[in-house]
Amino acid sequence: MMIESEAHRSKVSRRLQDETAQEICDFIYLPRLADFARGFPYLTAINQAHILMLDAQALIPSDAAKTLAEALLQMEENGPSAIALDPQREDAYFNYEAHLIGKVGLDIGGRAHTARSRNDILATMDRMRCRDLVIALLDALAELRQTAAEQAARYVDVVMPGYTHLQPAQPMTYGFYLAGVAEALERDAERLAGAYGRVDRCPLGAGAFAGTPYGIDRSETARLLGFPAVVDSTLDAVASRDFIFEVLGSLSILAATWSRIAQDYFLWSTDEFRFIEFPDSVAGTSSIMPQKKNPIVLEFLKGKAGHIIGHYAGAVSILRATNFTHSGDANRESISFFWGAADDCLTSLKLLRLIIRTASPRREVMLKRARENFSSATDLADAIVMKSGLSFRQAHHIVGAVVRDALDHDLTADRISLDMVQRACRDQMGREIALSEEDVHASLDPRISVASRRDGGPAEEGVRMVLGKVQAKLDADRQDNRRRREVIDAACRDRRRLMEELAG
């Protein structure tokens, strides 16, 4: 009988007699190995927790557990760069295992895979990595929320026109705007924090999908990895990555939030608006037009939001046509862009914080525009209602006629007179109303308009009320996130101590 050369056989299976095709190595396995270094700490932690559990349950000989513990600690110390990566071994786990077997031999090294599968290992790695990313995102969001709140308090008195449909609507303040931004970002943080509880479950011990006949202790491996509980169904444990889709969906909503904010700044920084000035340090220029000061950060933020939303749509499109079990398209391809998307979100949150921190409002320009562009027209209608007793709809018709008259005569809002109002009253109702010149001018003053809107509105006391609640929630959220990190860190210290004791 002719014995085939080892060089022409699969490096991971005796069922497969041929080497993996080069195209598969180049286009599938090698790209996956490019992320080996980032996954290495999670794979190491999982291996350590599993060995400790196997030893505690007497599922492998104690001397083998000791040798494995020594080798795993040494591999952790040497780091991922010490492991030679071969795409013929398919993925991170097989390359890691091959290095371990090379250190301790097949008999001992091969025992590390007792009672588990790559499926539950990969699911656990995904949850651990996603868990760390959510914590990092919540920290970055907290920094952004803090900056928005601080700038809101700083600019609480900067009056500017507010817009609906991108048309002048009602006066507000720049601080009021930023307080609203801080509250919206608070909900983005709440969505991520809510998702964290569903990420924070351990699938290890599920095996390929049907569990294992060995007497393992899933709760112990979960504890050693900092998880509060396991995913009960072993099928669901390996079949599902909905926790990633939930996080990615939350990031898509967050991206829409930051893109809308960036769009406001984009408009406000144009020469046509001139509401906001940015320092030169956050601007770009033109290769041909020397006058240019381009808003490169804002364009980056708006464009990156489209990428995040596109990744979510693409991921769900891949998942929808897969079976409810483990498969490469369901659990690898569908989430392959998630890690980069999460990194992009971290970057974008830092850049948006830079924008909010460095943006300087042009106070006089903002106030002048609010005085001139009819954004106080609603206040004039309110004054007519309160002073004359007319219905609001009657007042609305009168003020609409006044604005039309002003536009026809090229008059700005601050030049509207009592005579114009009374003329409109005669035209609309056939009579004049009880209203003074002072009433007209006061109602059209955007500063007075702002000061009158207290309950959650742009008045200083209203903004500071909102900011008080925003700050209290932010402080509580930060404490919650510190506790999340502390639980993981404590588990890591305990796991390390037990490994060192086992290694002797």
From TrEMBL:
<dbReference type="GO" id="GO:0005829">
    <property type="term" value="C:cytosol"/>
</dbReference>
<dbReference type="InterPro" id="IPR008948">
    <property type="entry name" value="L-Aspartase-like"/>
</dbReference>
<keyword id="KW-0055">Arginine biosynthesis</keyword>
<comment type="pathway">
    <text>Amino-acid biosynthesis; L-arginine biosynthesis; L-arginine from L-ornithine and carbamoyl phosphate: step 3/3.</text>
</comment>
<keyword id="KW-0028">Amino-acid biosynthesis</keyword>
<comment type="similarity">
    <text>Belongs to the lyase 1 family. Argininosuccinate lyase subfamily.</text>
</comment>
<protein>
    <recommendedName>
        <fullName>Argininosuccinate lyase</fullName>
        <ecNumber>4.3.2.1</ecNumber>
    </recommendedName>
</protein>
<dbReference type="InterPro" id="IPR009049">
    <property type="entry name" value="Argininosuccinate_lyase"/>
</dbReference>
<dbReference type="InterPro" id="IPR024083">
    <property type="entry name" value="Fumarase/histidase_N"/>
</dbReference>
<dbReference type="Pfam" id="PF00206">
    <property type="entry name" value="Lyase_1"/>
</dbReference>
<keyword id="KW-0963">Cytoplasm</keyword>
<keyword id="KW-0456">Lyase</keyword>
<dbReference type="InterPro" id="IPR022761">
    <property type="entry name" value="Fumarate_lyase_N"/>
</dbReference>
<dbReference type="InterPro" id="IPR000362">
    <property type="entry name" value="Fumarate_lyase_fam"/>
</dbReference>
<feature type="domain" description="Argininosuccinate lyase C-terminal">
    <location>
        <begin position="374"/>
        <end position="451"/>
    </location>
</feature>
<feature type="domain" description="Fumarate lyase N-terminal">
    <location>
        <begin position="62"/>
        <end position="310"/>
    </location>
</feature>
<dbReference type="Pfam" id="PF14698">
    <property type="entry name" value="ASL_C2"/>
</dbReference>
<dbReference type="GO" id="GO:0004056">
    <property type="term" value="F:argininosuccinate lyase activity"/>
</dbReference>
<dbReference type="GO" id="GO:0042450">
    <property type="term" value="P:L-arginine biosynthetic process via ornithine"/>
</dbReference>
<dbReference type="InterPro" id="IPR029419">
    <property type="entry name" value="Arg_succ_lyase_C"/>
</dbReference>
